Each structure stands twice: as C-alpha cells, then as structure tokens.
C-alpha cells in the first residue's frame, strides 16, 4: 500500500510560511523548490528535523526542501492538500529580493527541471540500445531497434518543442503558440532547405538557415520575446477578436523574427560558447577537469548545477557530444565511494 505523504506535505507548507507565502512551487529530481514572498517566515530548524526531509537550504532565490526520490509524490501531495497551483502562482506578485544570478538560475531551473525525467529516460534507453547492438541482440536495421531509437532520439531531436512549452510556462505566455514557433523551426520544408543549402528570403530579406534540431537557446529567447509581445497585444487588441487575432499576430511576428534574427544570432552565440569551453578543455583538460570536480559538489548542494545545463545541451547540439557532464561522473563516483566506505566502516 502506497504511503500517504499528506501530513508531511502539510508540515512542509506550514513551515515555509503557509500557502499564502508561496509564489510558486516546482520540483527537480530530489527537491521541492519554493519561491516565497517572505523567506524570513521559513522555519529552517523545524523543516530540517522533519521526518522525510533530508535538509533545507536557500539558494538561487528559492527555498529548497530536499526530499530524495519521493519528491514527485510529496510534490503531488502538496498540490492536493493546498491551494498552491499554477494558476495561483502566476497571479501572485513576486516581491522577493533577487539579484541577476538568482534570477538566471531560477529561470534555468524552471525551464529545464520539468523535462528532467523524460531526458533521463530517453538517455537510458539510448544506452540500452547501444548495449543491445554491442552484444548483437539488436541491429540498426531491425524494426524493433528503429522504433525504440525513435522513442529515445525524438526527445533530443525535438527538444525545442519541449523547451517551448516549459519556457512558456516559466515566462507566463501561451504554451501552444510557443510550441508552434518551435515546430516551425523543425518543419520539414525548412530543415530540408538547410540540409540542401537552399537560399531563402522573407519579404526579400535573406534568411540565414541554421539547424534547430536539439537546439536550446534560440527557442528560449524566442519564447521570452513572445511573452513580452503577448502582454502588449492583450492590452491593445479588443476582446471581441482577441481569441484569434492574438495568436495570428504572435505567429506572424515571432516565427519570421526567430528565423531572421533570434535564431541566427543565438546560433552564433551558442557556437561561440561551445568553442570557448572547448578552448579551455584544449588548453589543459586536467586543470579544467580538476576545477569542475572541485566546484561540482558545492554547485549541486546549492542547486547551482542548473546553470551548466544550457552549456551541456549547447555542446551536444553543436558538436554532437559533451565533456562537461562526463567530468562530473568521476566526482559522483568518488562521493559514492566515500559514502559506501562510511557505511561499511560503521
């Protein structure tokens, strides 16, 4: 019989200042991430001593309650026993004090954390398929392999669509328009034009075509601009035609703007970011690896590791591979070894 986490959920909400103190709530792989009106109302000592809570910390403009593997169940319990939900979160005013770093980390976390589960699942499925082909259980020309590979690879290939949805939820704009913008970037006619090197124009303006499959930054920036445009349009468009005219204008403006300006600019920025990281690795991988390994435990503890996610995804989109998260692997194994030794010693 499944354990009831209602009492734990109520106690957590009570000690973060009550549901009226909560602006928004999301969760990642192990933590409930509360964005609060007044962090001074949080009873840190009580929360840390609560059974079912591993620890509590303030980082990235959030109060993070570390639960562990049951975080999604506790998250659902919080939503079911309180009035905290997406609707109320968007309507409440953000009165917290935030600096630029906190805002950036909070935004990245809000965009990427909802898709963490499906990314992990797709990545594990790819790993299993590699194992199956290595052991000659499956071959690349088998229908079984193709179907399973489609299930795994589609998450990464069509990632702009997923990011369009999560970014729209974070920036509080229409998620279906955001997904439509992302789908236009991956539309077969446009991807074929890029692959074939076909020149294209929009109202006689040359369009610089780039590959948007697996890209990260173009759609996020595009949805951010969309959110600003949407607020403006809702103010000036009459209610009688707002239902169809707002999406019409958003798509007519944002899709060309993304192809003409946002996409090419962010593509160049992403390549510059990737080449900068590659240059650091090329200078001395040992120093780079040592530095990342040194800061990684603290980055994870304070939830700052989300800031590395766009770099990793950009590396994969640009080069088809990444070394940053590979560097963190030995770090994680070293911590696991230390924990295992401690358990055995006791």
Describe this structure in words.
This protein has 346 residues and is of the alpha+beta class. The chain contains 15 helices and 6 strands. The strands form 2 sheets. A 4-stranded antiparallel beta sheet has the order 1-2-4-3. Strands 5-6 form a two-stranded antiparallel sheet. A hairpin with a 2-residue loop joins strand 5 and strand 6. It is globular, with a radius of gyration of 22 Å. About 3% of the residues have low confidence.
Task: Provide a short characterization of the protein structure.
This protein is α+β, with helices and mostly antiparallel strands and 346 residues long. It has helices spanning 6-15, 44-49, 71-81, 86-91, 100-112, 116-134, 143-157, 159-171, 175-185, 188-196, 217-236, 242-283, 285-301, 309-319, 324-345, and strands at residues 22-27, 31-36, 55-59, 62-66, 200-202, 205-207. It has 15 helices and six strands.
Provide key terms for this protein.
346 residues; 15 helices; globular; alpha+beta; 4-stranded antiparallel sheet; two-stranded antiparallel ribbon; single chain
Strand percentage = 5-15%
Number of helices: 15
- Biggest β-sheet description: 4 strands, antiparallel
Which runs of at least 5 residues are low in confidence (pLDDT < 50)? Answer: 86-96
How many β strands by DSSP?
6
Radius of gyration: 22 Å
Order of helices and strands: HEEHEEHHHHHHHHEEHHHHH
On the 0-100 scale, what is the average pLDDT?
Answer: 84
Overall, the morphology is: globular
- Derived from helix and strand composition plus strand pairing, the structural class reads alpha+beta
